[in-house]
Amino acid sequence: MDAFGDLFRGVRAQGSLFGSSTLTPPWALHFVDGAPLTLCAVLDGAGWIVPEGRAPERLRVGETAVVRGPASFTFVDEPGTVAEPIACGEHCAAPEQGGTRYRRGWHDPGDGGPGEATTLVVGAYPLHGEIGRRLLDALPPVLRVGTGGTGDPVLDHLAAEVAIDRPGQQVVLDRLLDWLLVCSIREWFDRPGGEPPAWYAAQRDPVVGEALRLLHAEPAAPWTVSSLAGRARVSRATLAKRFAELVGEPPLTYLAAWRMTLAADLLIEKDAATVAEVARTVGYADAFGFSAAFKRIRGVSPSEHRRAGRSMAPVTTPA
Asked: Where is the HTH araC/xylS-type domain (predicted)?
């Protein structure tokens, strides 16, 4: 597991809203649910993503946009369109519920002539937990990926799948959306002149990249800088210097923050687990040391974090 792939452990299209819409101008789809992450791909035609409070973004055929929530956004034929927006969200899953051209895995051929229609595929991702938040924090409000990248074959498969109705279609669409999401974010991070997160760029370094892979593969291991350097086949001084330069913090500081991210989710997801059990899972020998580290890094105790998660209240995290 690498640092980038690890962030997708809780990101799955299964159970998320999925729609394929074929629209003829004028049209406007208003995505109202405020999903943490929404992927939009244009299979035919073109349109504009209009995020709340931000400038419109043109989306052409074969292009993909990833929109970060919770703010809503609109997909329109033209900025300032005269179309009455159709609210698309959780309750827009069938035509009788208001989604006349939008529902889970449904393809409507539209009423326009050849070349007039725009076909849009949308997947909304209900990210949960601190790992999901770590991914969201690395993304801009809207990222747009053009044609010619690794996502092009996925779009071809999507276009073929939404045009038919076969057993198991939702499973296929879910996996294709996951594939397209990873390709899109990776393409955006790798674009010329891009500014990816430090930990992402550092993965290309043979030394620091190997260290990051080890920390994510074995987060509970009793790591020291020396043991990590030994596994990466460099000196302790070399690893410490290069890691701090490329990632922006020492290896064990990075590891402590990642362990607390994992622990924060475990405390909520495994309600029956004791704090001591969670501590051991992320590499701490005793609950006291773990609790002290958790409060130092996250600003609240493990018990306070768990209570806040139970009540769905926001957890205060240090800036």
From this structure: 209-308
Phi, then psi, of 234 in degrees rounded to 5: -140, 170
Q: Which residue from 25, 110, 23, 26 is spatially nearest to 40, judged by alpha carbons?
A: 23
- Which residues contact residue 231 at a Cβ distance below 8 angstroms, ignoring those fewer than 6 apart? 210, 211, 214
Q: Using alpha carbons, list the distances in angstroms from residue 238 to 117, 131, 199, 205.
A: 57, 29, 17, 13
Q: How far is CA 57 from CA 12, 50, 78, 252, in A?
A: 26, 6, 10, 40
Q: What is the mean pLDDT of residues 294-305?
A: 95
The partner residues of 30 in beta bridges, in order of sequence, read: 74, 87
pTM: 0.81
Amino acid occupying residue 173: L
Residue 29 DSSP symbol: E
- In the block, tokens 């809207």 appear at 142
Sheet holding 118-125, edge to edge: 18-23, 118-125, 37-44, 64-68, 142-145
CATH architecture of 253-310: Orthogonal Bundle (1.10)
**CATH of the structural domain 3-190, one choice from 2.40.40.10, 3.40.50.740, 2.60.120.280, 2.40.50.90:** 2.60.120.280
pLDDT band at 90 (very low <50, low <70, confident <90, very high): low
Report whether 148 contacts 9 (CB < 8 A).
no
What are the start-end ranges of the H helices in 143-286? Answer: 152-162, 169-190, 198-202, 206-217, 225-232, 236-247, 251-269, 275-281
- Indicate the residue type of 123: G
CB 89 within 8 Å of CB 33 = yes
pLDDT at 114 exceeding the cut of 60: no
